[in-house]
Amino acid sequence: MTLSTQSMVEVRTHERLVELVLNRPRAHNALSTEMAQQLIRACETAVRERARAVVLTSAGEKAFCVGADLKERNGFTDDDLMRQRIVFRKAFQAVLELPMPAVAAVHGYALGGGFEIALSCDLMVADESAVFGLPEVRVGLVPGGGGTQLLSRRIGSTRASDLIFTGRRIDIEEAERWGVVERRCVAGQVREQALELAAAIAENSPTAVANAKHALTTGKHLPLPAAMDVEDAAWRATALSDDRREGIAAFNAKRSPNWKD
């Protein structure tokens, strides 16, 4: 494993995986402007490193991320807030548009923008300490990192409305029952579980996985006939790749595939 420290966001490389660590534990990993900028650069690093999967974890024991740093915003003018908005939107978009699967490892509080960072990932693993919420309406805002769109697509519009309109929090029991998280684990093991999940993904054809993610993320916004065309294009591109030829050869030779990055 190699480690590149970027202060508020660490980039850890584990062979074919890249781990992005939110690293402001004293502030419960609250998202500041600088941290958002570093998250953008960290995602760019993951793409540049040709990672087969990305895992988002966090430092500290109490929180994954409690959302925007309201102490930083306390002295903001309206212009300051709009300038920060540009950076924040790019940060959420950087996670959402990662070309490889991204797995969020959530423990403790995942609130506001922190919850939205997790929702921007393809899969979410959470331990028994996890608490989720979108409390923006309680401070005169609405979710702005994809909360109104990503949560409703994940759990349905009525349940998303419940959380967003009330600003209430839910524990791991309710989160699991509603389908907020894909996998649940005991406290203290979420990072390891998320890395294991990402490693299982990385064993597969990187071309096939990337094209499958493209079909999933693109197709869900389209009518079914158009979405089927997206899937067909993804299938054709993968079928004509070296990975398909290697996969068939490995299967018939009864050996493990040797995928090319």
UniProtKB/TrEMBL annotation:
InterPro entries: ClpP/crotonase-like_dom_sf (IPR029045), Enoyl-CoA_hyd/isom_CS (IPR018376), Enoyl-CoA_hydra/iso (IPR001753), Enoyl-CoA_hydra_C (IPR014748). Keywords: Lipid metabolism, Lyase. Pfam families: ECH_1. Coiled coil: none annotated. This is Enoyl-CoA hydratase-related protein. Belongs to the enoyl-CoA hydratase/isomerase family. PANTHER family: (7AS)-7A-METHYL-1,5-DIOXO-2,3,5,6,7,7A-HEXAHYDRO-1H-INDENE-CARBOXYL-COA HYDROLASE (PTHR11941:SF169), ENOYL-COA HYDRATASE-RELATED (PTHR11941). The lineage of its organism: Bacteria, Bacillati, Actinomycetota, Actinomycetes, Pseudonocardiales. Gene3D superfamilies: 2-enoyl-CoA Hydratase, Chain A, domain 1, Lyase 2-enoyl-coa Hydratase, Chain A, domain 2. The keyword Lyase applies. The keyword Transport does not apply.
